[in-house]
Design the sequence.
């Protein structure tokens, strides 16, 4: 039976980070759940800034009305104004604190949502995506990009809103309080705005340069650390250190330039602010002498003028955090918009009791947009058979194995389990039916028991131990300090490659799939261990269909059937004895194998 499969080659942008214009919709969607909090925040910002800006006006009233009244023996106006000033200061302070708390709470909610979305999405995406995207980029999304968004939400947006509102309210208050002083301020705004524009442009360039250099530093570090074994084996430490030192020096230099730009901006902003204050004081002072202006108003005007330019620094700085957050949001949006090529079937076919019959029906396959690496492979494997895949390196053996486990989908043809196209089998059933044990035998942090139970999380301790016994790892585990509860990371025992492989065998044994796909480790075991692993393998492969990418002669010779893969085609197919007798490629491979074994012994 061949069920039509869902379209699997979903369109995907060529550059995985290029998704311009996606940042705003993403921001809108993550802000939606905290909408009411955002409105509350707006209200808090407006009231707190109004309270702060009221200060100088109250000073003016105090000096011009309260003091004369006090001189005439009436203290009430001054007390009222003083009380008002205190109240405004108190309200301004308390509400500013509330703004910080509210914005932090909102941003934490948003970030939690974003982190979860990124994690779920990276898990949902298929292997082909991860091979192209690389783990380094996934890590950057989950760390530095989310940090950039955090910076924007935590401080950037509220600081911008507070600063902008404070400037507007200050300017309006000054214009209302004293027109001429307001005019001086508005004139001074022109160089202030020009300076800020200059700063934005320079810091944008600077920011780009910093990002490029910072990315180089990170890539160099990650590459050296992931390849630390190769670095040490080939004594490349000095060269790596020199290359890294040069990159960090570049990083220091661009940071230095960025700080210089900040310094210039700060200097001129302070100058403009101080000159404005001086002009307001001079013009106002002359008017006070003429009796055209009250002293209190002059004091208030000076206070307003002094305050006006301070937030401009924050507005300038906001641009930096806005830019990095925008770039980060774009990359996050692009990641979240990716669709896996491997899609779940629209009409899943249940397969609760699989027998394990496999069929590769004229399968042609290539990775991503690359050339075909398997050409018209046509093989039928009856339930219960153990098939060894052999062939030279790069022939396509692992690819066949990965297609059977549906890590990828075929380009043409079909892979079928019990006659059902694997693209149509209900995903849960498929996962239970086919298990792949990969070469690297990855262990999660946790205990030995937890690692074995990955294959069946609801397994009892007795079942876990039975699996351990079946693959012959039980006695070894019993020598660990806490037996099956011993952690397998740096806090517990460090397992050798061969021991890790046995644990992964136990994991697969416990999962008990109808089909086991095994990419045999090339050379993780010494000769005395060989027999031990051979027995474990035989027990693991018994009573189920098995497709084994075989690297050891013992595995091949105990298989029911051997497929010789060359150049993406099956070129020989038969029992090991038949193929040896036939005198083809396998027979030559067999001879070479035997020769190398006798040479080693
Ligand atoms: N993830 C991948 N992306 C692109 N091409 C790949 C990928 N994996 C394998 N290939 C290519 O597919 C071809 C078959 O590779 P495959 O890993 O199946 O060979 P193999 O027979 O298992 O080799 P080996 O014995 O060395 O593991 C090779 O040409 C290889 O370059």
Sequence:
């Amino acid at each position: 039976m061949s069920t039509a499969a869902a379209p699997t080659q979903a369109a995907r942008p060529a550059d995985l980070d290029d998704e311009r214009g996606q940042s705003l919709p993403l921001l809108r969607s993550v802000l939606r759940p905290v909408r009411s909090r955002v409105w509350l925040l707006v209200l808090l910002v407006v009231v707190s800034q109004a309270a702060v800006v009221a200060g100088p006006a109250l000073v003016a009233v105090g000096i011009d009305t309260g003091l004369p009244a006090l001189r005439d023996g009436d203290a009430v106006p001054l007390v009222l104004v003083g009380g008002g000033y205190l109240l405004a200061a108190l309200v301004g302070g308390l509400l500013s604190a509330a703004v910080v708390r509210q914005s932090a709470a909102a941003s934490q909610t948003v970030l939690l949502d974003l982190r979860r979305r990124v994690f779920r999405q990276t898990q949902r995406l298929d292997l082909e995506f991860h091979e192209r995207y690389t783990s380094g980029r996934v890590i950057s999304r989950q760390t530095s990009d989310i940090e950039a968004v955090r910076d924007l939400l935590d401080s950037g947006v509220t600081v911008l809103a507070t600063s902008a509102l404070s400037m507007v309210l200050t300017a309006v208050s000054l214009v209302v309080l004293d027109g001429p002083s307001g005019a001086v301020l508005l004139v001074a705004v022109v160089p202030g705005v020009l300076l800020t524009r200059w700063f934005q442009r320079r810091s944008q360039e600077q920011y780009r340069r910093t990002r490029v250099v910072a990315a180089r530093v990170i890539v160099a570090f990650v590459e050296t650390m992931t390849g630390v074994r190769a670095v040490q084996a080939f004594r490349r430490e000095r060269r790596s250190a020199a290359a890294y030192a040069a990159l960090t020096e570049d990083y220091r230099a661009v940071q230095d330039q960025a700080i210089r730009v900040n310094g210039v901006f700060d200097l001129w902003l302070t100058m403009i602010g101080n000159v404005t204050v001086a002009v307001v004081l001079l013009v106002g002072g002359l008017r006070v002498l003429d009796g055209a202006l009250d002293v209190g108003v002059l004091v208030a005007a000076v206070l307003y003028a002094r305050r006006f330019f301070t937030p401009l620094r924050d507005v300038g700085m906001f641009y930096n955090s806005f830019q990095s957050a925008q770039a980060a949001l774009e990359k996050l949006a692009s990641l979240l918009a990716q669709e896996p090529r491997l899609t779940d079937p629209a009409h899943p076919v249940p397969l609760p009791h699989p027998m394990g019959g496999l069929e590769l029906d004229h399968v042609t396959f290539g990775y991503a947009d690359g050339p075909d690496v398997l050409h018209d492979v046509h093989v039928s494997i009856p339930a219960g058979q153990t098939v060894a895949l052999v062939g030279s390196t790069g022939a396509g053996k692992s690819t066949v194995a990965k297609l059977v486990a549906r890590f990828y989908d075929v380009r043409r043809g079909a892979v079928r389990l019990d006659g059902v196209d694997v693209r149509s089998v209900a995903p849960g059933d498929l996962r239970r039916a086919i298990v792949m044990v990969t070469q690297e035998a990855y262990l999660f942090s946790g205990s030995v028991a937890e690692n074995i139970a990955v294959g069946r999380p609801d397994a009892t301790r007795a079942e876990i131990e039975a699996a351990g016994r079946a693959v012959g790892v039980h006695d070894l585990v019993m020598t660990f300090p806490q037996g099956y509860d011993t952690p397998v990371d740096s806090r517990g025992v460090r397992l050798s490659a061969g021991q890790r492989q046995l644990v992964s065998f136990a994991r697969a044994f416990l999962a008990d799939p109808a089909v086991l796909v095994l990419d045999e480790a090339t050379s993780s075991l010494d000769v005395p261990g060989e027999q031990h692993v051979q027995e474990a393998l035989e027990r693991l492969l018994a009573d189920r269909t098995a497709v084994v990418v075989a690297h050891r002669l013992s595995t091949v010779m105990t298989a029911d059937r051997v497929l010789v893969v060359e150049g993406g085609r099956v070129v020989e197919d038969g029992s090991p004895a038949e193929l040896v007798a036939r005198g083809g490629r396998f027979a030559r491979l067999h001879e070479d194998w035997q020769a190398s074994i006798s040479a080693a012994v």
Q: What stands out?
A: The chain has two domains: 23-337, 358-600. The first helix runs from residue 23 to 31. The pocket of adenosine-5'-triphosphate is lined by residues 131, 367, 370, 373, 391, 393-399, 549 (CB under 6 Å). The chain is about 65% helix and 10% strand.
